[in-house]
Write a structure and sequence with these properties.
The chain is built from 11 helices and 18 strands. It is of the alpha/beta class. The protein has helices spanning 38-49, 82-89, 91-114, 136-148, 158-164, 183-196, 240-243, 304-309, 311-325, 327-331, 372-387, and strands at residues 4-7, 27-34, 54-57, 73-74, 122-129, 153-157, 171-180, 200-202, 207-212, 217-221, 226-234, 249-259, 273-276, 282-286, 292-299, 335-346, 352-354, 362-366. The chain is globular, with a radius of gyration of 21 Å.
Length: 407
């Protein structure tokens, strides 16, 4: 799959990423993780920490798929609003999902502190803006559920927004204790951590087929060797759809720019994460080396040529969106990196773990949505519990078909 195009920022922040060998001989393991990107790295780290014999196989280098385009806002609210999830699945299930997302940010923070390299994790508050007066009722519903269930969020009037930012919006929800991270550094560090726990890592090792056996699955690789595994997790990001498309999953196209470094962020209160109710929406964050990332303007195309043809125009539009919100900051910088990429979502707004009868002993991880790193953390821990025989009542929250999320 042609995942992305453009000039990528994250690889420039990490010059010493380790390389791993290509598989040259037949091997066996407890769990094969197919994919060494964000989802696969989190699975490998969790499962190796639980004492399982883990192998990771990636057809590229570790972290060189969609991880390079992940803008890594860590939030517990998503593009499918909380009140919409309540309407779909009921209040108890929707709130439990939000709680799990909030906990996942803390879990990522804990992992970041234990990993062998700095992954640039930082806590950030979020400003979730009503894009127009017409969006106020749904923002009010959102805040009503957050307030009712004790989430650390405040209602900000238009006057309060104007006192803290150089732009105006009708109202916003100010959410405390979200976060940001360098996704490429985090990916690399998780794989390093998994290797230190005993996992075997193979790059440039493409899975090309499988044979189901009585108590194993044998996976063929492009180079010839076979990996025999008791269980397999397909964590290949958006390319998971090539293994097993699911009717609840969909691919879109998204865009982002990263500016040149700035001397100051005057007028940007707390360097908050900023996003909005408009669909498609715009989001903004800052980086450790004092850049701005602005992204969004999603398009409903899964054709790479169509996606890429729009990149120059989207780059210019995103810089204009930055100037509309932070004119002084935009005037002091310019776009240095820009990209177009595929972006996966689900129709019902929740990530998924797939189990399918035609793929025995295999689990499919679809951490699709705007909170991919957060969702990967949740699903990786659920799969660890599943594969170690630890009961977890939340597992069915995220299975395809949502058997536990009927009203």
């Amino acid at each position: 799959m042609d995942l992305h195009t453009g000039k990528m920022y994250w690889p420039t922040t990490l010059q010493d990423a380790p390389a791993y060998p290509t598989l040259r001989e037949d091997i066996a393991c407890d769990v094969l993780v197919i994919g060494g990107g964000s989802s696969g790295a989190q699975c490998a780290y969790e499962l190796s920490g639980a004492g399982l014999d883990v192998v990771v196989a990636d057809k590229r280098r570790v972290g060189w798929g969609s991880t390079l385009t992940n803008t890594a806002l860590l939030q517990y609210l998503g593009d499918k609003m909380l009140f919409e999830l309540v309407n779909s699945f009921g209040e108890q299930a929707a709130i439990r999902h939000a709680e799990r997302c909030r906990q996942a940010i803390s879990d990522i923070e804990a992992d970041a502190g234990a990993l062998p390299r700095d992954v640039e994790f930082a806590r950030r508050d979020s400003l979730y803006c009503a894009a127009s007066e017409a969006d106020l009722p749904k923002l009010e519903q959102e805040f009503g559920y957050l307030s009712k269930h004790g989430f650390d969020a405040e209602w900000w009037s238009g006057d309060r927004i104007r006192r803290h930012y150089p732009f105006s919006r009708p109202a916003a929800i100010y959410v405390r204790n979200d976060g940001e991270i360098n996704p490429f550094a985090y990916n690399v560090a998780l794989i390093e951590g998994a290797k230190a726990r005993g996992a075997a890592i193979y790059e440039q090792t493409e899975i090309t087929g499988r044979v189901d056996e009585a108590d194993h699955v044998a996976f063929r690789t492009a180079g010839g060797p076979t990996i025999r595994a008791r269980r397999a997790i397909v964590a290949a990001g958006y390319e998971t759809m090539s293994f097993k498309p699911d009717k609840n999953a969909l691919l879109l196209s998204t865009y982002a720019v990263v500016t040149k470094p700035l001397d100051a962020f005057d007028g940007w209160h707390g360097r908050t994460l900023v996003w909005e109710t408009a669909r498609p929406y715009i989001y903004l964050r800052t980086t450790r080396d004092r850049r701005v990332i602005v992204g969004g303007l999603d398009e409903g195309t899964a054709i790479a040529e169509d996606r890429d043809s729009r990149l120059a125009g989207k780059r210019d539009r995103l810089m204009k969106e930055l100037a509309d919100r932070f004119p002084a900051i935009a005037a002091a910088t310019e776009a240095e990196f820009h990209l177009a990429a595929f972006y996966g979502g689900t129709h019902d707004g929740l990530p998924m773990i797939g189990e399918y009868g035609d793929f025995p002993r295999c689990f499919f991880l679809y951490a699709y949505g705007d909170n991919g790193l957060v969702y990967s953390s949740i699903l990786a821990k659920l799969l660890k519990d599943r594969l170690t025989g630890t009961p977890n009542p939340d597992y069915d929250f995220y299975r395809q078909g949502r058997p536990a999320l009927t009203r």
